[in-house]
Design a protein that fits this description.
It contains 9 helices and 7 strands, in the order H-H-E-H-E-H-E-H-E-E-E-H-E-H-H-H. The protein is an alpha/beta fold. It is elongated and about 65 Å long.
């Protein structure tokens, strides 16, 4: 249930259909920050875009993007507009943005889980969903970096029985997120967004839906002597 609306939000809702507003509220009920996704130096646009699309589909609100060597780009064709509804956190100002990202996530209460078929990895079906977890997906060929391996709190892998030892990053992300978010929603864990978080995102989504939003907001504020 969303918090009490501001007068401005009530005004802006008048530009959005009831069907659209109801859809926002329904989707917000399934959004979570219990899990989050980290993309480390993903240079292939179609892969990062497909992961972002999976995050939206399975209710992951936050995506953390590390750019040490490559600039991450989103393909609108692949992402299907999913990027519009997610919260992005980019790390591209330091020589080692990976460490900055991992430290921030740990400070926010997340355990760092490196997705890798190597090391002493936990099998996906045995993963403990009770802790807030950030799943790190690495560059296409070499996987997550040594910095991630050294600072990870755990490792996760998808069981495989064929000759091939790895999955495409976008496929791996989709499998992991579907499996773990399904378990999460069947659990008794407090995984939902807070009412305040839902209200902030709802307002943000309303504004993103309206054309010429800045002009409309300015007109409202001037008309109500709030500028």
């Amino acid at each position: 249930m969303l918090h009490k609306k501001t007068n401005l939000l009530t005004y802006l809702e008048g530009f959005v259909t009831e069907k659209r507003k109801d859809l926002f509220k329904k989707i917000l009920q399934d959004r979570t920050r219990h899990f989050t996704v980290v993309l480390e130096d993903i240079y292939q646009q179609h892969n990062s875009s497909a992961v972002i699309r999976s995050c939206d589909i399975f209710g992951i609100q936050d995506v953390h993007v590390i750019e040490n060597k490559y600039n991450s780009k989103v393909s609108r064709h692949v992402a299907k507009g999913a990027q519009k509804w997610l919260s992005f956190h980019q790390y591209n100002e330091d020589k080692n943005n990976t460490i900055d990202c991992l430290e921030k996530l740990k400070n926010d209460g997340y355990q760092i889980i490196a997705t890798t078929p190597h090391n002493d990895s936990c099998i996906l079906h045995d993963f403990d969903i009770s802790k807030k977890s950030a799943f790190v997906f690495g560059v296409e060929k070499s996987g997550v970096s040594e910095d991630v391996i050294k600072n990870a709190d755990g490792f996760l892998k998808i069981p495989m029985v064929g000759f091939t030892e790895s999955l495409n990053i976008s496929v791996a992300a989709a499998i992991i997120l579907e499996n773990l978010t399904s378990k999460l929603r069947k659990s008794d864990l407090d995984w939902s967004l807070t009412e305040e978080e839902q209200q902030m995102l709802y307002t943000n989504w309303i504004e993103k839906t309206i054309k010429n939003i800045e002009e409309i907001k300015t007109h409202y504020l001037k008309s109500n002597n709030e500028m």
